[in-house]
């Protein structure tokens, strides 16, 4: 018999407290600010009242297998959700912070229901004409932000697996674009690809 997954009740209690002031709100998080290659992703999630998602937590604390399972459950249980990205070209044009903010804005704009408030993981807020709250360590504090962290992480990992099919010489399937020793060795051997962030690799250009 499979072991039952624990419900991290404090995540949902935090959201219930927010819901007292804003009955319909979303949590937002991004994935992929640090890698040397690929787009940056963000997700926005609206969870209904009294929802329960066993095992939900900060995506960084979860295994890949658990994130994949949660991805489907979050999409099934969410009142609304949207995953968006900002491209490598936009990262180069704007800088990575502003590109991440752009991806977050796109994710919120893509929700198919209006929200009254946006909870953003971290200490920076994008520009939106909505009430917003920055929540430091939000993916370990709010269920909605944790859910968004899972969707963004899984979606970006899948995108990097697709890039691996186009550029197998870089090993994106293993490091997802992060600056590992193997990744730098591949860059030294093969040069910078069109999906690399040149501003992150100034020492190689």
TrEMBL record:
Q: Does the keyword Nuclease apply?
A: yes
The GO molecular function terms of this record are:
manganese ion binding; RNA binding; RNA-DNA hybrid ribonuclease activity
The reactions it catalyses are: Endonucleolytic cleavage to 5'-phosphomonoester
GO cellular component term, pick one: cytoplasm
**EC no.?**
3.1.26.4
Q: How is the cofactor bound?
A: Manganese or magnesium. Binds 1 divalent metal ion per monomer in the absence of substrate. May bind a second metal ion after substrate binding.
Tell me which residues bind a divalent metal cation: 29-30, 121
Query: Where would you find this protein in the cell?
Result: Cytoplasm
- The UniProt entry lists the main location of this chain as cytoplasm
- Cofactors named for this entry: Mn(2+); Mg(2+)
All copies of domain RNase H type-2, residue ranges:
23-205
Give the InterPro entries listed for this entry: RNase_HII (IPR022898), RNase_HII/HIII (IPR001352), RNase_HII/HIII_dom (IPR024567), RNaseH-like_sf (IPR012337), RNaseH_sf (IPR036397)
Per UniProt, which keywords does this protein have?
A: Cytoplasm, Endonuclease, Hydrolase, Manganese, Metal-binding, Nuclease
- Asked if the record carries the keyword Nucleotide-binding, the reply is no
Q: Pfam families, alphabetically?
A: RNase_HII
GO biological process annotation, one example: mismatch repair
Function comment: Endonuclease that specifically degrades the RNA of RNA-DNA hybrids.
Q: Which family does it belong to?
A: Belongs to the RNase HII family.
Q: Kindly give the HAMAP family that the UniProt entry links to this protein.
A: RNase_HII_B
- Protein name in UniProt: Ribonuclease HII
Which species does the entry assign this protein to?
Ruminococcus champanellensis (strain DSM 18848 / JCM 17042 / KCTC 15320 / 18P13)
């Amino acid at each position: 018999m499979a072991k039952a997954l624990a419900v991290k009740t404090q995540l949902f209690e935090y959201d219930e407290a927010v819901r007292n002031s804003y009955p319909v709100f979303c949590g937002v998080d991004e994935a992929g600010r640090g890698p040397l290659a690929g787009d940056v992703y963000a997700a926005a999630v609206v969870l209904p009242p009294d929802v329960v998602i066993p095992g939900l937590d900060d995506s960084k604390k979860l295994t890949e297998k658990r994130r994949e399972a949660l991805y489907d459950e979050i999409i099934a249980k969410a009142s609304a959700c949207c995953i968006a990205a900002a491209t490598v070209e936009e990262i180069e044009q704007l800088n990575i912070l502003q590109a991440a903010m752009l991806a977050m804005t796109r994710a919120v704009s893509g929700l198919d229901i209006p929200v009254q408030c946006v909870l953003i993981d971290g200490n920076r807020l994008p520009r939106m004409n909505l009430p917003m709250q920055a929540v430091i360590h939000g993916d370990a504090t709010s269920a909605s932000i944790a859910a968004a962290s899972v969707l963004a992480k899984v979606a970006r990992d899948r995108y990097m697996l697709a890039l691996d099919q186009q550029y197998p010489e870089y090993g994106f399937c293993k490091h997802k674009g992060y600056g590992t020793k193997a990744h730098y060795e591949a860059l030294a051997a093969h040069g910078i690809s069109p999906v690399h962030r040149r501003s992150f690799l100034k020492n190689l250009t």
